[in-house]
Design goal:
33% of the residues lie in helices and 29% in strands. The chain is α/β, with parallel strands linked by helices and 309 residues long. The protein folds into 2 domains: 220 residues, P-loop containing nucleotide triphosphate hydrolases (Rossmann fold); 67 residues, Alpha-Beta Plaits, CATH 3.30.70.100. Helix 3 packs parallel to helix 5. The structure holds adenosine-5'-diphosphate and magnesium ion. The site of magnesium ion has 5 residues, from helix 1.
Length: 309
């Protein structure tokens, strides 16, 4: 796989001295959906803005499609579609003109079929003659997406795309994102909603306080960092964990009806077989057993917590 976006040792110190990004390096593969997950103020918008050439790096280099974002700005920028966090559209322009004009700004030749297809995919076709100012917030966001897609970008950035949007738009957006990905478009979205990263991303990058804490394949991230819990339901409730089992990391479930055993899926031995033997030796009979895996949310909270002072 080749990296379509490559960020190397990027640092951004805003005027006034605030370090928003600290030595960030990140390769984004062609055709993947990457979620940048991080709390408010983590530096997500700054990172995206730097890649799109809207914020100038203090140090470091960025290439898009092999083009340096500063020395070859036009070539790099033409590959990029950006749906910004804030709504920024010309209020008195119509939906269709907004989209067409944006394509023109990128020097692309007129293609009414592409514009129609894009507007239809976003359920904007019936509203194409409305002026932006007449639209609801959700519709305005759809226009922003249409605008970003007007020049057929190879890399699409969505900055907090679902913050405050309704369920319908969210669903349409994910369908569109998956379709674009199937066409080879690379998608980078930022979010502070863990469920969102879990739902849509192929890879997840966790960013906090201007630093990338990790970038991992979503499934491997979840199994690698994920801890599992084994819940053993007991036939007879117990008042306390027997002394003979005190070496195990066990906790007592509600009303003493179960034992909960936490283990690491990446460990060489889970210790489950031995635990069950020792349980039987202690005269305890189990009625049922189940496992559950921690979600991305637990992993995220753990990571951000560890990083906290
Ligand atoms: N133009 C600016 N001047 C100074 N500080 C800024 C500017 N833009 C953002 N910041 C600060 O940089 C940090 C990261 O901001 P941002 O990239 O918007 O984070 P996120 O998108 O993850 O919420 C925040 O603490 C923010 O206050
Ligand atoms: Mg932001």
């Amino acid at each position: 796989m080749t990296a379509i976006v490559s960020v190397k040792n990027l640092t951004k110190i805003y005027e006034g001295g605030f370090t928003a990004l600290n030595d960030v390096s990140l390769d984004i593969e062609q055709g993947e959906i990457l979620a940048l997950l991080g709390p408010n103020g983590a530096g997500k918008t700054t990172l995206i803005s730097a890649i799109c050439g809207l914020v100038s790096p203090t140090s470091g280099t960025i290439t898009v499609g092999g083009h340096d974002i500063i020395s070859e700005f036009r070539a790099a920028r033409s590959l990029i579609g950006l749906v910004p966090q804030e709504i920024t559209i010309e209020p008195f322009e119509t939906v269709i003109n907004t989209t067409k004009l944006s394509r023109g700004l990128f020097g692309m030749k007129r293609d009414d079929a592409h514009i129609e297809e894009t507007l239809r995919a976003l359920s904007l076709w019936d509203k194409r003659k409305s002026r932006n100012v007449e639209l609801s917030g959700g519709m305005k966001r759809r226009v922003l997406i249409a605008k970003a897609l007007s020049h057929e970008p190879r890399v699409l950035f969505l900055d907090e795309p679902t913050a405050g949007v309704d369920v319908e738009l969210r669903r349409d957006m994910w369908n569109l994102v998956r379709r674009l990905r199937d066409d080879g478009v690379t998608i980078i979205l930022t979010t502070h909603y863990i469920e969102e990263a879990e739902e849509i991303a192929d890879r997840v990058g966790v960013i906090n306080k201007g630093e990338i804490l990790l970038v991992e394949d979503k499934t491997s991230l979840m199994s690698k960092l994920g801890k599992k819990q084994l819940t053993i339901d007991l036939q007879q409730p117990v008042e306390a964990i027997p002394q003979s089992l005190s070496s195990y990391p066990l906790t007592l479930g509600p009303e003493g009806k179960s034992l909960i055993y936490g283990y690491d899926t990446s460990a060489e031995r889970t210790g489950i077989t031995k635990l069950l033997n020792d349980l039987a030796a202690a005269g305890m009979t189990m009625s049922d057993m189940s496992t559950s895996q921690s979600s991305l949310e637990d992993i995220f909270v753990d990571l951000v917590k560890e990083d906290a002072p």
